[in-house]
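Open question from group meeting: does this chain pack into something compact, or does most of it stay loose? Before anyone orders reagents, we agreed to write out a predicted structure and look at it together. Recording both the input and the output here so the notebook holds the full record.
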Amino acid sequence: MLYYMSKVKKEWSTRSITTPDGITISFFDNKLHNWNGPALKYPSSMKKKAEYYLYGIQQTREDWMEFRKDRSGVPPEKNPQVQSRF
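Structure tokens returned:
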């Protein structure tokens, strides 16, 4: 059972690595992913734009911002912004 728990924790870990070229890569569940910024950040000397990924799917910055805005962590029935009438 202990082995299973450590395996699960390892699979769902978030990691960021920096390559020798200076590229910062963020992973979640072994897929490119980052809610806090671009998953691929290039150094300014490379003159490349940062790339945004969510769960391994590449997004434009605008789409990424929209997805990020929609995540509040509160279920709709507890969110005061959602008003439903029955």
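Observations to bring back to the group:
The radius of gyration is 17 Å.
The mean pLDDT is 79.
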